Amino acid sequence: MAASASDAKPIFMNLLAGMARLQAIICGMINRRSVVAALAAISVLLWAALDATAQSYPQRPVRLIVPAPAGGPTDVPGRLIADGLSGLFSQRFVVENRVGAGGLVAGEFVARSEPNGYTLLYANTSVLAVNPALQGTNMPYDPATAFAPIGFVSNSPQLLVANPKVPYRSVQELVAWAKSNPGKLNFATAGVGTLPHLTYELFRMEAGIRALNVPYAGGAPALTAVIAGQADVLFDLVRTRVKSGEVRALAITGASRDADLPDIPTLAESGYPAVTSTSGTGIVAPAGISREIVALLNSKLNELIERPETQGKMKAFGLVPQSGAPEEFGAWAAQERERWTRVVRQSGAKVD
For 25-66, what is each residue's pLDDT tens digit? Predict the structure, then answer.
């Protein structure tokens, strides 16, 4: 039977509605394709812009903030790195010393700087691990999130050294003297919240001695005090002063002896295996810096560290050169924070 006009009308209307829906779907697909294409184009342009930025970086001098006074065991290698990067980038990397609070002043300054690659921090164990362990919730920034790691520079054991005129010539004799003279042993440190400070606290706890922490504004004045006889002993990177005879080395904080100082025992050999520590250094930038600039800086830094002439100079300073990826430096810093937080908890070390 043929369909009537009344029967055909709803069929026709349904057909029109279906065609309208089909048109909407097609238009939507076109629109979605357009949006996707536009986003893809924007992404390509963005990455191209970032790549161009990295390729043209740096267009002006870069500040390398050093958290220690000039002339000390942190500043000298920091200047070596700045000079080397200046040559590799054909742009000046300028050292700027910002001293105070065991590196807290320098760390906070960099953490609050623009993440554009023009302000970097020559960071060490004190800044990245010891200070956070001591300060706890009083830290003005979280080093785990405030910084983007660039790469390692060194990871070196400290030396326990004494003024040559003191009556003890070994760790065992030092501990015996300290126990016979409770409270009279003066330990110079590079300042509260530094690695030498917490290494002293760990040694004091393990040896069971009473001693006085005498904090200075950096490693250089602390070393000067020991050489002058104003303080008795200290932990720090002072190999050159041992070789010159200005201080007497009693032990090394590494896991093994130093090939250049083979007669100096480790603290483990001296009866204190728990007292091991290394002073790690590297470069970090404010969080948010582009990955392309991080990759470029890391590549040049590794190239510099792996040069024989750089390694020779670093070893002369008593440093153990180390290169590596940004992720390796970041993982090491996280492990050090955990370690020194445990030491603070166990030793009861305080900021004041």
Answer: 445 554 555 544 544 555 454 444 445 556 789 999 999 999
Q: How many CA atoms lie within 13 A of 197 on its CB side?
A: 30
163 with 225, same domain: the answer is: yes
Q: Is residue 114 located within the same domain as residue 180?
A: no
Predicted structure pTM score: 0.76
The CATH number assigned to the domain holding 185 equals 3.40.190.10
Residues 283 and 220 in one domain: no
Amino acid, single-letter form, for residue 265: P
In tens, the pLDDT along 236-288 reads: 888 889 989 999 999 999 999 988 899 999 999 999 999 999 999 999 999 99
Looking at residue 227, its amino acid is: I
User: What's at 147, amino acid-wise?
Assistant: F
Please indicate, yes or no, whether residues 142 and 167 belong to a single structural domain of this protein: no
> What backbone torsions phi and psi does residue 176 show, to the nearest 5 degrees?
-60, -40
Task: Give me the number of domains the chain comprises.
Answer: 2
Q: Which segments of the chain are extended strands (E)? A: 62-66, 93-97, 119-124, 147-157, 159-162, 185-189, 211-215, 233-236, 248-252, 278-286
CA-CA distance, 155 to 164, in Å (whole number)? Answer: 27
Q: Which domain holds residue 87?
A: 62-156+279-347
